[in-house]
Amino acid sequence: MDESRMFQENTSDNYLNSVAPICEDDAFQKKGHSARTLSPEEAEKLARDQALVSDFKKLKLEKEAQKNWDLFYKRNSTNFFKDRHWTTREFEDLKACREFEDQKLTILEAGCGVGNCLFPLLEEDLNIFAYACDFSPRAVEYVKKNVLYNIERCKVFQCDLTKDELLENIPADSVDVVTLIFVLSAIHPDKMHLALQNIYKVLKPGKCVLFRDYGLYDHAMLRFKSGSKLGENFYVRQDGTRSYFFTDEFLSHLFMAVGYEQVVNEYVLRETVNRKEGLRVPRIFLQSKFRKPLSDA
């Protein structure tokens, strides 16, 4: 992607309700601690769409969550998401956390997909060893087949963060930085804490989780049609994959209840432009940093 150009995004229902955005031109971005204010029309739509998916369908979606993501990658292969070359700019800690220049860092990308974040990071920083895992076995296989995959620089494995122990593949207290980017939103809210507990065990004391995900009232949330709501701020897409939209309060409580310390937790408000259709839509994300304390005492 040419990062000198304004970020453009397809604004169709399927795209907005499927893709984790690649951004980013800072001229069109601002950060803050206030959520977006809805227009009267948007507020009316959300108030009207209160019908929940049946309990039977909710259980079916939870049971088939891995299958639905595997089918997503089967349909889209490695072509759906663009490479995220913006990651090191948005998360300066990927460089700033070094205690000395050229220090070798060990990172974990929790929810690596097909490697759109992983491989740009490894290319940009030769002093990184990366662990990477994903819920989808198919996504993991795509990573392993990538010509840039090198077992001397990264280890990828399949993992359900809510039940499979990361300790089976990663030593305890060994990771300098964990990236959790557009991943937690795909997990049922009742199980999110399990993923954070799992990550906590492999993160070094004093080191951080770098988080970015969908925020409350993001345009994708407002585009869901009636009959897509699973619970508060939680929706299902047409392909069976799910997405949660975070408030800063919910996210803060979620991390701190597990034992993390909050460092930064703020909304990122962007205006995405589709020049072809002449559309401008508001994108809302949460970008945050939570630290594992130096001592659990």
From TrEMBL:
It comes from the Eukaryota. The keyword Ribonucleoprotein does not apply. GO terms for cellular component: cytoplasm; nucleus. InterPro entries: Methyltransf_12 (IPR013217), METTL2/6/8-like (IPR026113), SAM-dependent_MTases_sf (IPR029063). Its EC number is 2.1.1.-. One of its GO terms (biological process) is tRNA methylation. It is found in: Cytoplasm; Nucleus. It catalyses: cytidine(32) in tRNA(Ser) + S-adenosyl-L-methionine = N(3)-methylcytidine(32) in tRNA(Ser) + S-adenosyl-L-homocysteine + H(+). One of its GO terms (molecular function) is tRNA (cytidine-3-)-methyltransferase activity. Its main location: cytoplasm. Keywords: Cytoplasm, Methyltransferase, Nucleus, S-adenosyl-L-methionine, Transferase, tRNA processing. Belongs to the methyltransferase superfamily. METL family. S-adenosyl-L-methionine-dependent methyltransferase that mediates N(3)-methylcytidine modification of residue 32 of the tRNA anticodon loop of tRNA(Ser), including tRNA(Ser)(UGA) and tRNA(Ser)(GCU). Interaction with SARS1/SerRS is required for N(3)-methylcytidine methylation. Monomer. Interacts with SARS1/SerRS; interaction is mediated via tRNA(Ser) and is required for N(3)-methylcytidine methylation. This is tRNA N(3)-cytidine methyltransferase. It comes from Chelydra serpentina.
